[in-house]
Amino acid sequence: MQGKWRENLIKIKPYVAGEQSNDKDMIKLNANENPYPPSPQVKKVFEKYAQNSDGLKKYPNSDSIILKDAIAQRYNVNRNNVFVGNGSDDVIALSFMAFFNSDKPILYPDITYSFYPVWCSLIKIPYKTIPVDENFEIHAEDYYTENGGIIIPNPNAPTSICKPLDFVIDIVEHNPDSVVIIDEAYVDFGGESAVELTKKYENLLVTQTFSKSRSLAGMRIGFAIGSEELIATLETVKNSYNSYVMDSIALEVGTASVNDEEYFKECVNKVIATRERVRDELIALGFDVKKSATNFLFATHKEYSAKEIFEYLKTKKIFIRYFNVPRIDNYLRISIGRDEEMDKMIAAMKEFFI
Amino acid sequence: MQGKWRENLIKIKPYVAGEQSNDKDMIKLNANENPYPPSPQVKKVFEKYAQNSDGLKKYPNSDSIILKDAIAQRYNVNRNNVFVGNGSDDVIALSFMAFFNSDKPILYPDITYSFYPVWCSLIKIPYKTIPVDENFEIHAEDYYTENGGIIIPNPNAPTSICKPLDFVIDIVEHNPDSVVIIDEAYVDFGGESAVELTKKYENLLVTQTFSKSRSLAGMRIGFAIGSEELIATLETVKNSYNSYVMDSIALEVGTASVNDEEYFKECVNKVIATRERVRDELIALGFDVKKSATNFLFATHKEYSAKEIFEYLKTKKIFIRYFNVPRIDNYLRISIGRDEEMDKMIAAMKEFFI
Q1: Which chain B residue lies closest to A102 (C-alpha atoms)?
Q2: pLDDT tens for residues A242-265?
């Protein structure tokens, strides 16, 4: 007898991440990872557990208090204004479940993080994308329309473009009936954070990640800052999905990282310096490159096709990101690596252009 | 202007976990944690990262290959039959999303893991609970009814009762139109695993956890074994929710644990020996105690109220679990700790009974 159980399986198109490779020689500029290691303070956590790992037999603190307190202190808010999760993907997915319960469509830019439509599909949330303009700029007035919620990355990805705080205020003030999420995954590389605005606007949630500016993509730590009511709702959803999502090691590693402000600034500044230099070099090579407030550059070449450049670099074991999607199918997203990695990429491009 | 954004917030009742405490003197027998530390092999992972934690700047392997391969080898299946997640709560929540997409109610016992109704509420899945009998036994024929899916823990919690594999076969064979999930969180302490049956029944999924028998509650590792089709669907849902849910450390710690079979068996056998001794002592004290195939005992006293015993023990800094819910509100769930912890609990009970 052939069962009909297959009829109950979900039908969904998943997110496709940047290519992975185990090749040690490859130059990986396709996942917006940080080229510098995490804070050396992180090692102390591992030294402690190398001495004694008995504590792992117990469940982690489900309120993630040590990490929340460290973040609250760093960002000048209270513990009850902080939510932490397994990467900002987890934080944003839970936020979609928590805040986007309406029959009206949620709004986000047409060119943006490609996980948003996937979450909408998974959680069955109606959505409408708002086109960015021909320069990939987002305009606040396009969001003065009825909606069930708004999410905008600032800086946006993969465009790298950052909007000023006035833009966020404009959006929030025109949308008192919606929760507005500002996804600040890249804000540390040059954007202006809206965290302070969450003290004034109870319907504003700001999300950030430890994966980029804190070099901890491998550890899966993200957080949100918002009003006590938004955070309490997020906690309820988390406790209805997986109470202990943050493991004990991630909590301690995250705490060690947040507490090392000096190292954090040093790494971020190195990435910014490399970015600006490489941007100038790409422009000199004939690229049009957006002004970036992130740890990547968004570029298109006047003569050569993005796809061909992408494929040529791949033969040289240099991986950058190419999106075969409308409007940006002649653009490249290039993560900022170490100076010598970027030099090799520039050299390979020059070879290709000869 | 007062915004209406609150109308879009989710309304839901979260799962309530066992009480936590930071008191080092407390005897914690309320969360079914293992009293023994994880495998000593786990420390080698931390030693490695204490030397060099640079790798954490990169995203983890999103396919979790090292851990899947270790589990596949241990359980005699292929990599494509294994799914891993952030604790079995994550694995089961994703399974609800992946497999329970029907208008018909899913079925599970009325007395069981209290997270199931919470997930149904979060993911909007209709459900119907099937009463266990007056001895808390589950009967397969009660599940010969139309449904959108079935989940049964075996052994069941908090009853500690285990059913033989014939019961699982009976359920699966009578439900060819549904995915059947057997939640084996406690199976290592005396149950018979249905993993081998997944080779025959494509609609059977078995879930397990590293939190109990492998002493890694703090690390958040769970897994599922099933047909390639079920596992591929789970992977799609995971990649639509959070592609990198397993952090790099959890993947390596889990692998080290699975590969140390000898230590695993030694710990499980110690817990079982303590459980059997304590069960006899509780019976001698006037308790009715179910035959347990788990790392906890489910007990009711002929004369004294469960709630009062629970509260008395708390004053002695001994935490066991009491559920103030219908049918089991005169029962206690007692996790198996070290022998000396159990002796203190028995001594405290004797004090109370004098």
Answers
A1: B8
A2: 989 999 999 999 999 999 999 999
